[in-house]
């Protein structure tokens, strides 16, 4: 980790102003300060602040948020008494934005190779592109889940990357190792029909705000299917903490945001999460940074509730239900965990794709998908996965 110290700056002393108990995070985490160098090997989760927003077309100021979030985060107590977290300080701006992306990619790749779960605390959401690049040299096909009121996509291939087009840069990158992209809580009045059609054409998953509000548990299988999550604070309604320049009076609630992060933490396969567009410079109430801290707390608590719940057919911890549809044209195996009650459905794949895609053929679902299949209807998520695999 010493190789990356030139990229990082220690956490300043004032981030500990609310720390006055031995059991608060600020006294228990291994934190990079002027007097301490964290031992990454002992950590299971590594947090990195990113002081970067040069590519923010709107919402300048998010670069100043990581330390403001820490002031609240360090004051929290764990519900489950685990402290295997290292905070390695702030990634400083590189000479160019490409330098910043390279630093995120390099540090993140190192951490992922060493089986760490990475929390990126931004900064503008174009940094999610660099989060995606963390997986490039791992030769791992991944799924992404993005929580955002907007679909930040542009068809202009040569357009400079920004916080308004980074999703397009991820989807169109070559060579590409993205298998599935899921978008949660987009707001229709912010999203052009052409972008929705583009996701349709690629058989990606997308869920309007109305399908998430007050029934956030239905998003759990989508989150459980992801390797990486991006969370843009524009997805949260303004009065609940979504205080960004491009705010909306509508959005998910603070409670729903924390629930989503808890689901992400519980996801056995998820290895990185990025929180972006938090803008302390325009939020005099500090409710946004306080909420961001609670969301990170929720993610960590979810992580320590992981059950190592990876479905295995013919294993005593799992039960398999087979459903034949359309007069036997399709046969779907549904698998339920006795340990957690969670469901998956199996998607067939050609033998030559086993090495890279086998783990993507167990698609998280709900009992509702099983009941849908029993009614001779193909579950939408199963069909989308089937088509993507068939087109490989």
What does the model show?
It is built from 13 helices and 14 strands. Strands 1, 2, 3, 4, 5, 6, 7, 8, 9 and 10 form a ten-stranded mixed beta sheet that branches. The mean pLDDT is 92. The longest helix is centred in the first third of the chain and has 17 residues, at 97-113. The chain has helices spanning 25-28, 66-73, 97-113, 127-133, 166-172, 193-201, 209-212, 220-224, 254-266, 287-303, 354-357, 367-374, 380-390; strands at 8-9, 30-31, 45-50, 85-91, 117-121, 142-147, 178-186, 205-208, 228-232, 272-276, 318-325, 330-337, 343-346, 362-365. It is α/β, with parallel strands linked by helices and 392 residues long. The chain starts with 7 loop residues before the first strand and ends with a helix.
Cα-atom radius of gyration:
21 Å
Number of strands: 14
Helical/strand content category: alpha/beta
Number of helical regions: 13
Shape: globular
In N-to-C order, the SSE pattern is: EHEEHEHEHEHEHEHHEHEHEEEHEHH
Low-confidence stretches: none
Average pLDDT taken over every residue:
92
Residue share in β-strands: 15-25%
Distance between the termini: 38 Å
Write a concise keyword list for the protein shown above.
alpha/beta
Topology:
Layout: E1 8-9, H1 25-28, E2 30-31, E3 45-50, H2 66-73, E4 85-91, H3 97-113, E5 117-121, H4 127-133, E6 142-147, H5 166-172, E7 178-186, H6 193-201, E8 205-208, H7 209-212, H8 220-224, E9 228-232, H9 254-266, E10 272-276, H10 287-303, E11 318-325, E12 330-337, E13 343-346, H11 354-357, E14 362-365, H12 367-374, H13 380-390
Helix pairs in contact: 2-10, 3-4, 4-5, 9-10
